[in-house]
Design a protein that fits this description.
By secondary structure, the protein is of the alpha+beta class. 54% of the residues lie in helices and 15% in strands. The protein has a 3-stranded antiparallel sheet. A hairpin with a 2-residue loop joins strand 2 and strand 3.
């Protein structure tokens, strides 16, 4: 049995990062257009955009490391 990953919605990611939901959606669009990841990794669950909490935490850690 594998450990289940916590799934977050855009509002929860906004609370963790301080970035507006619209910014998260914009980054998702840029990632598709540029072919490289911009912002935390996201995925679609049906029609909804979702994020794994550990991916968001990893992105936050990368941003902190890059700005140090």
């Amino acid at each position: 049995m594998s450990a289940s990953r916590i799934i977050l919605g855009p509002e929860q990611v906004r609370e963790k990062t301080g970035h507006a939901v619209q910014t998260l959606y914009h980054w998702r669009t840029l990632s598709k257009q540029q072919g490289k990841l911009v912002g935390p990794r996201s995925f679609k669950l049906g029609r909804l955009v979702r994020y794994y909490e550990d991916d968001v935490d990893a992105w936050i850690a990368e941003q902190a490391k890059a700005s140090a």
